[in-house]
Amino acid sequence: MNKFILICILAASYSASAPSEVSFYSVSLSLSQDTLFKTIEIRGMQGSDHLLSRITRGFNPETQSVSIEKAVFGFPEGESGPIPHWAADTLTGSSGWQLALVTAFPALRAGMIIDYRITVSDWSGNWECGIWALLSPSVKGIRPDTSRFTVSGDMLENLSWHGTGYDVTESDDRIEFTAADSAGLLVISPFSNFEELEDFILQETYAVLDSSYPPDLREAALQATSAGAYQYAQSERMRSLICNSINPSPIVRGGDVYSVRSLQEILDLRRGTPLETAVLFAAMCRELGMEADIIPSGSTDYGIPVPSGWNRFLVRLVSGEGDIWFMEPSAYLTPASYIYRPDTLYIIENDSIRIMPPNTPRENSVLEYWMINPLSGTFNLEITCTGWYDMILRRRFAGLSYEELILSLSQWSWLSGRTIIPDSLTLSDPFDLSINMKLSVHGKLWMPAAAYSASAEYLPLFDWGQTEYLPVSITRVWKLSGIDTVYCPDNTCVEVLEDAVILTDTSGNSVPFPVVFGFSE
């Protein structure tokens, strides 16, 4: 009876609204030959948010295995025991993992504690130069009381690290990092400079590009000569060919990070990872006499050379005349020369890290030009796009039949808050990446207005989505024919012509645009 009362008191002493807590979090990395062993240990207390009821660990069964070494739960200072055998299972993975080991703690209530430890064995081939990792001192968004990271095993003498707020203890066969309250991301790497990192990332790429090329590739490259003698135009043509014939292949986490299949395999399967697509494109450009080099790129500079995060691959091209330009071959249905950069893009070029500045608004622009006849209730629309908006238009309409185009455009207008009825439209070829997208539409907008009287209407526009994170330029122009007065929101440019009024808005707002206009007498 006393024991039961003690357990109830302990459980009741933990606030019903308190969040989960982690008292201890540990990651131990050990390298033996080419296999990395990663042991993860978590001790914590369940809160009202139930964050500790289920712990998932993704893995790739072709190159990794995961084993549970400990999974117990109970009350503090009370009885605890292991989870039942059915509470741990291997399920289909998510977020790029093929499979996931899911560990559930059944009937884990607020105030109860868990003690959990697993070991991941990884023989993917990513560790031939040594251990590398990005380690965050948090678990499920919870800051532990104690976070400890340990590295041991082979090749410790080559390791470097970067991170603030850690106490470091070193011995001959072990390095231990204990996080302080202010600790951030810890980066561990065996590479001393970006030349070594570039060689590691591109070692299979170099081998494929230096091999003999299959006849299929030569034939595909020659198709690009139809674009003319100018090599830049040929590279645009090849970007279109690859986009139309090679499907993007998702990267499965836990595999050999920078593996590359042979050119013939890529051509036969018609699928390629971003790196494989860049290799295929570079080989085709080399066949036509251009210099073509693979440029790893990523969105983050971690302070030291580390393989993680270099998941985009550009190709730097040099023509016979010495002109230099970059392309991203794996960017599906994206303008040939456009490289998406909402923020600084880091690239590894000439054995050092360099930057590409963010896109300018001019690179991500859209112009909606509406020519409206209020007396007849009809309109003509011209849309021209670059960059991000070009990509949106391509992906929205590519592959649709004419009837489907009409329906899709009508739905888009309706979702934007104003209904239009398209009668006809023309669209530039979404699969030709060398030209900017253009859309021309004719149709009905509203019931014909009564002449010689004022009318109030919402002018049409299209909602292009949220772009706060991206420098953009949105311009909407409405030319209203046959009127001589107009009342509209402030900060709108108004130009009165002899037979029309032109309104121009560059605010980027995506809500219906109210106006009141009057007709000429």
Strand order, main sheet: write it out. 5-4-8-2-1-10-13-12
How many discrete structural domains? Answer: 3
CATH class of the largest domain: Mainly Beta
**In whole angstroms, how far apart are the ends?**
97 Å
| Structural class based on helices, strands and sheet pairing | alpha+beta
The CATH architecture name of the largest domain reads Sandwich
Helix content: 10-25%
Q: How many alpha or pi helices? A: 8
CATH topology of the largest domain: Immunoglobulin-like
Number of strands: 31
Oligomer: single chain
Basic shape: globular
Q: Taking all residues together, what is the mean pLDDT?
A: 91
The percentage of residues in β strands lies in 35-45%
Itemize the secondary structure elements and their pairings.
Elements: H1 2-13, E1 21-32, E2 35-45, E3 54-59, E4 64-74, E5 80-82, E6 88-92, E7 99-104, E8 113-122, E9 133-135, E10 146-153, E11 160-162, E12 166-171, E13 174-179, E14 186-189, H2 194-209, H3 215-223, H4 231-245, E15 247-248, H5 263-269, E16 271-272, H6 274-287, E17 291-298, E18 312-318, E19 324-327, E20 345-349, E21 352-356, E22 365-373, E23 378-385, H7 387-397, H8 402-415, E24 421-427, E25 438-444, E26 455-459, E27 473-481, E28 483-487, E29 493-496, E30 500-505, E31 513-519
Parallel strand pairs: 1-10, 15-16, 22-27
Antiparallel strand pairs: 1-2, 2-8, 3-7, 4-5, 4-8, 6-7, 9-14, 10-13, 11-14, 12-13, 17-18, 17-20, 18-19, 20-21, 22-23, 23-25, 24-25, 26-31, 27-30, 28-31, 29-30
Helix pairs in contact: 3-6, 4-6
